[in-house]
Amino acid sequence: MRFAMVCASNMNRSMDAHNLLKAEGLDVESYGVGTQVKIPGPSAREPNVYPFGTPYHEIYNELKSKDQALYERNGMLRLLERNLKVKLAPERWQENTTKFFDVVLTFDDVVFDKLMEDVRGREQKQMKSFLVVNLKVKDTPTEAGKASPLALQLCRKIQESEDWEDDIEEIVEDFSAETGRTPFYTVCFY
Amino acid sequence: MNASSKRDEAVDVFNALLLCSDQKEKAQKLKELTELLVRVPKNRELLPEFVPRLCELQLDQGAAVRRELAALLESLGGLPATTLSSAENAPYLVDALRCLASLSGDESEKVGKRALMAANALLSSAYKACVREHSAVQLERCWPALEDLRQEAAKTLRADSAAKGGHKVYACKFLESLVVFLSSEDLERLASRSDPVLYAKLKSGALEAGNKVFDEATALQDREKSSGVPATVAMVLLSALGAFARCRPELYAQGACGLLGNVAEALGRGKDGSAEGGDGGQAEAKRNALAQTLKQVLLGLVRSDKVRSFGGEVVETCAGALQSLGFDADASQARGKRPGPAARGAGQDRPKKRRRGPEDALPAGELLARFQDLVAKTRRVLAENDLQDFEGPVLSAEATADAVLANFGLDPAQFAALAAADREGEEEEEQALYRARSAAEALMDAQVGATQHAAQLSREDLKFMALASMRRLQGANLEAGATAASASPEDHQASLQDRLLGRIAAMALGNFWGEDRPHCKKVLDSLLEHILERMQRDGGHATAMGLFYAVFALGKGFRAVYDQMLMQLLRGMRRALPPHDRAMCRLLLELPTLPQGEIVAFLRDLIIMSSDKEGDEEAVEWAALGLAALRDLVFERPSLRRSCLTLSLSCAMHNNESLRQKATELVADTLYPSRYLQGDIENFALKALRQLTAKGDGVSQTEVSRHMGLLFALCVKKHDLLHELLSTFARASSAQRKVMNQKVAALAKEIPASSPAVLSVVEGPPRGSEILLLLVLHSMAEKGPLPPRLVRAVQSLHRKTGDARFLVPIFADMPKADAIDCLPKFAELPETARKTAILNAFAEDPQGRTEGSITASELFVRLHLIDEQKTGVSLKKLIECTNLCFQLKEIYNSTVLSVSIQQLVQYTPLPKLFMRTVIQTSSACPQLNGFIVNLLQRLVGKKIWEDVRQWQGFLMCATKLQAYPVLLQLPTPHLQAALNNKRMPDLRQKLCDFVKQNGQAAQRLPRTTLQALGVLQ
């Protein structure tokens, strides 16, 4: 079973989950749905913006050269250090047309909407179903760190099911009872 | 690798697969074959050979194998479009889809789900290939298999518990794909031109599939019922409704959005209810998930250009639904994206009309001039600018018609922007698109402003303008028709004039129906007259469509006017058009709605009254046209299907034979192949037959034919009905039996002897139906060899019943040993039966028509060998049998007879009829006389005198053939006996003469012989 973790910039939440699921041996990829990769800067109005595809190590070097203390303090350098061990560069969901997944996990309502907008616009060729689940997580390194084990737990349950189309209602109910989080989901087709 | 080694490799893998006992290994071999046959382009030429054989694996016991088979068939979707779209290059596509249809109902849900997934992907590829290659032939060939798949999918979706969510998800998705593909404009264009019957089938298939989805989705409106629908299935149902509306808004948007709106309301209420009542967590999670899915579906709709251009009402429904779900921001955004008034429904959001006093009205002449100016400008904009881009969502003829109509009395200043756009002629070329857009937008802007202005016109102005502009438009329309006369009527798209005429009529009705009906009637009469005039010249169909759609859009309050207008037009067409003109059929198919009762009554009159005018060729053509219309309506108008089918069926039983025959052809050949009609048609035919049997003997033969014709025609299409026919025969009166006997031969010629239905009736024929069954078998035997299975079944029936008549049709194809065993019974059959059997068997070749069956000479010999004592067959019968053979000279020619006699002569004692046969042969084939004389000589060696009966024949034959040398070879005592034979008094004289004439020969004769003759003392 192939999983995709999706957030806005493929930097924090999706990468945290990607890192954990990969370490646990799941077949996983990660993506962002935004137009560009945005990283908090010195103020809310001055974010660092990079095009998708810019390698994590380049971003790391640039931030470090800009203001090492600031980016160490807000955790961005630590986050990038982890990311560059997972994969080369942030990837944009909309640009991927060759890899197909069984389960896509989004971490925000807006991300879910954007992803669905993209899915709607794609031509269905294979007629194969996939599950999109949205687990709402605040975009901070701490919250992302807390959410990743939940994502792993949910993905494991789905993977263990013989047929998720039959079992998804029970899976979500169990997950909800165990974690107190109720994700929502939908069915899409490639 | 050359062709044969490729094939050898594939055959090796296939054989290895068949020999595997392990499921996993088998599945692995199937994967290998997928790689080998599908993925390697060079090997694809082997697919026509292998796919049908692989499809047989659907019966394999291993679910894993069947699943892998579905995957292999799915991979065929990856073939190039040129291959997939061609029935010649990919004949196996039918097999593949048929196999998937069968697998989709598999006992294993996993196999069923996989098969539906594969079928969906394969359908998608085939559809795209056909559209790309502009050929619907492959789709037509695959249609029955797709119908089977549709039914399986519908069955799965409807099943209460048998199929779980996963299986149902794919069933629903398949139905969605069917609707989306079959309703697509691309396919419509392709099929409607190349093959109207296929087009009708596709439309009806889409409708059936769509109905299933709508039916299932209806449950989601109800909180209790929806709890039984798995969340995943509900999601796919909702998405399917969205896909329908996006694909063809004009067909599905209103229905689908209405239903989505209701579901949204139910979900909205559920949210409140669960908050109050404390529903379970699972219900809440499901509700939440469904609400999110529905939100996505609704957003997809409001963001679709096609849906938006269809009308504001639909967008409003979607926005309302979003609001019900609690997505207020999305609802507001949806409303903000609504199109301008051009695309809005009539009357919606318009400012209230303020009646202007006569003093405010502009002079009518000026208004008309402005109107004319606006029409001209609009045409210019369309003609001069590259407006193809806008014809769809932004500036369709429909929208332009709205714009023009809304601009009665427009202030010319409103067109400043338009004029400015017109003047910008010298801009650079790359700005052409921009200019075109500006012009279109300017027109739309102008219209927005003018809507309010037009609303302030006085009603008298509107009335006047409606009539005047309608006449002008009619004039323009006729001119345009004349210039486009060379194009075929089917190519005529609805023009701006067509749209406008309809709109003006609708406007007149909408505004004045209540207060000034004569005015409305005048407008409508004028327009209907114009349509008829155009129809007589070059079409007029588009104008009629414009009118009826516009009146239809006025709502149910005007349905009576609509119906009246339609009937007026149809009657007019009946008067004014020639019967070969198909305009009426087309009109009936494409109108937005039809009044069922009136239309059926009209067609009944058209068909039946025309048929009553015997000898009137035009009347016959009208009846044919009526029947063609019935056919189209049955396929394409589900609401009229039942009544039109009933009318077709009643025509198939009409007193008029010519009409009955045509209607029977329509029902049996065209309607009956559609599965959804079969039940009704069969019931009708059987009921007609039952009515007949209930009447007993007092019915004329014509009446019998009238009641039976349809069932006979259906039997050709569905052989299983043969059993029903035989049962009826068993109960029938003698008059009825007579008709059935007359008709059954022709029927049996149409049914292949290999049909399982034939085997089934032979294995268990209804009691009392033997004669009819015999006639069926006779007809089949006349056509050619019967299949061995059928022959065995008939033999078994013969053993069971002891009825030797059953031997006749199978005699030619029975195994030789069985035929020989049956000969005594064969000999006892009436002569006509024996003759039929022999002719069937040997007319083409005395060696027989089936390998291993008896030959003509063997039959002849075996007839001679029948033992009277043991079998009880009298000698007289046997003589009749051999005489019959001699009558059939074509079969029993000199070769066959000589071969037979040579065989017979070897038996000791000689068969009783031997010498009789030899004498008959010498008469029948004088050319064999030399052969017979030699035979006589051989008989002398066999001491023929010892068998008294044969001895007499011998002497007769020898004398007849003047075989004197043979006679002179007889031992003296026997020669003496022959000479003393009273039946041949002149034998001595003849022999003496012979001896005298042949002195040399006489010298070699024994002395005793010469003494016996008296030549020597």
UniProtKB/TrEMBL annotation, chain A:
Entry-linked Pfam families: Ssu72
Broad class of enzyme this protein falls into: hydrolase
Gene3D superfamilies, per database record: 3.40.50.2300
Keyword terms, alphabetized: Hydrolase, mRNA processing, Nucleus, Protein phosphatase
Annotated GO CC locations: nucleus
Catalytic activities: O-phospho-L-seryl-[protein] + H2O = L-seryl-[protein] + phosphate; O-phospho-L-threonyl-[protein] + H2O = L-threonyl-[protein] + phosphate
Subcellular location: Nucleus
Enzyme Commission number(s): 3.1.3.16
Top-rank taxon: Eukaryota
Any one GO BP annotation for this protein: mRNA 3'-end processing
Gene Ontology MF term list: RNA polymerase II CTD heptapeptide repeat phosphatase activity
Family statement: Belongs to the SSU72 phosphatase family.
Function text: Protein phosphatase that catalyzes the dephosphorylation of the C-terminal domain of RNA polymerase II. Plays a role in RNA processing and termination.
Identification of the protein by name: RNA polymerase II subunit A C-terminal domain phosphatase SSU72
Species the sequence originates in: Chloropicon roscoffensis
TrEMBL record, chain B:
Region annotation (Disordered) ranges: 330-363
UniProt domain Symplekin C-terminal: residue ranges: 803-980
Domain of life the protein comes from: Eukaryota
InterPro entries given in the database record: ARM-like, ARM-type_fold, Symplekin/Pta1, Symplekin_C
Segments of skewed composition (Low complexity): 339-348
GO CC terms of this entry: mRNA cleavage and polyadenylation specificity factor complex
Protein name according to UniProt: Symplekin
Organism per entry: Chloropicon roscoffensis
